[in-house]
Specification:
Belongs to the bile acid:sodium symporter (BASS) (TC 2.A.28) family. By secondary structure, the protein is an all-alpha fold. It contains 15 helices and no strands. The N terminus is likely disordered.
Length: 334
């Protein structure tokens, strides 16, 4: 089996090597990519600090003292989600390289975008930030383990886990968030303004990254139907999985939203680094297509989910005000 897989992958490498560069390599400007990476780290640090301005120390301690939600989210993130992706890949049988990209993404920890979306959706931000940190830390061991489990039948290429990028992600959570919490403690009024500003910055950062990704990698829009289907399904399946699992334990709705969002997001940047450092240049562009498309569709899905949560909260508030007025004045509806 191992020999046949090696032979099959060798044939793939040989076939792709014969494709002209114009058809294989997307519009890629290394200078633009470097600017994207630097700006993204700066703005994400500012956004994480702004999110810290919404987290009270007591709330954070309370979430850590009751790790039910945390443990369930990690189980879904590293056990159920990779298995779900693996099942979809085998059921739909996409192109071999696209399948590798799907599996690699499914083994990565959650992304920091979940924190800002949780804030927009009215979820528990303290739990969201905690889950991102723990998920990233566990990814140091769980990502290589899942890669070993799920990629054996798909590639004989040894994957290189980008530990430096994992450490950078941990840094973006560990340093800015406590700074924001300190601002909330010392200057509560200023913290409100910083949180609102960070929410706006986060929106434009996500939209900007999506736009630049489209410019850098236009070839992803010509992917096969299996790639589009899985990239479109996974964010919604992650939301449903997280919400249903947390509902079983009767967790509060703000916690359910935080867990659902955390499970539906993957660290796309980490996945892309893993691909670039692990595969030859003549094939890693093809493997990168699925994570890039997932990033776009996942962001769109999370935007819609946050908007839906805001709409539902608005309707609930209106109904509550109407009931309060009815109690005061029974003739109010008339």
């Amino acid at each position: 089996m191992a020999d046949s897989n090696s032979s099959f992958m060798h044939n793939i490498y040989s076939t792709i090597a014969n494709v002209t560069d114009a058809n294989l390599v997307p519009t890629f400007d290394p200078v633009v990519q470097k600017v994207i990476d630097i700006l993204l780290m700066i703005f994400m640090a500012l956004v994480m600090m702004a999110l810290g301005c919404t987290i009270q120390l007591e709330e954070l301690k309370r979430q850590l003292r009751r790790p039910i939600g945390m443990g369930m989210a990690m189980f879904c993130q590293f056990i159920m989600f990779p298995a779900l992706v693996f099942g979809l890949v085998h059921a739909l049988k996409p192109d071999k390289l696209d399948g590798i990209g799907m599996i690699l993404l499914g083994t990565c920890p959650g992304g920091a975008i979940s924190n800002i979306v949780t804030f927009w959706a009215g979820g528990n931000v303290a739990l969201s930030v905690s889950m991102t940190f723990v998920s990233t830390a566990l990814g140091i061991g769980m990502t290589p383990l899942n890669l070993w489990i799920y990629t054996q039948n798909w590639t004989d290429q040894s994957t290189v886990v980008p530990y430096i990028n994992i450490v950078i992600t941990l840094f973006l959570v560990m340093v800015p968030v406590p700074m924001g919490m300190l601002i909330l403690w010392k200057f509560p009024r200023a913290a409100v303004r910083v949180a609102k500003l960070g929410s706006v910055i986060g929106f434009f950062v996500i939209v900007g990254v999506m736009t630049l990704s489209c410019y850098q990698y236009p070839r992803m829009f010509h992917s096969g139907w299996q790639v589009w289907l899985v990239a479109g399904l996974l964010p919604s399946l992650g939301l449903c999985l997280g919400f249903l699992m947390s509902s079983v334990f009767r967790l509060t709705y703000d916690v359910r939203k935080a867990i659902a969002i955390e499970i539906s997001t993957q660290n796309v940047a980490l996945c892309l680094t893993l691909i670039v450092t692990s595969f030859p240049k003549d094939i890693f562009f093809q493997i990168m297509i699925f994570p890039l498309l997932f990033g776009l569709l996942s962001s769109a899905t999370l935007f819609l989910f946050a908007a839906l949560c805001q709409f539902v909260s608005y309707i609930i508030k209106i109904n509550q005000k109407r009931k309060e007025k009815e109690l005061i004045d029974p003739l109010y509806p008339l």
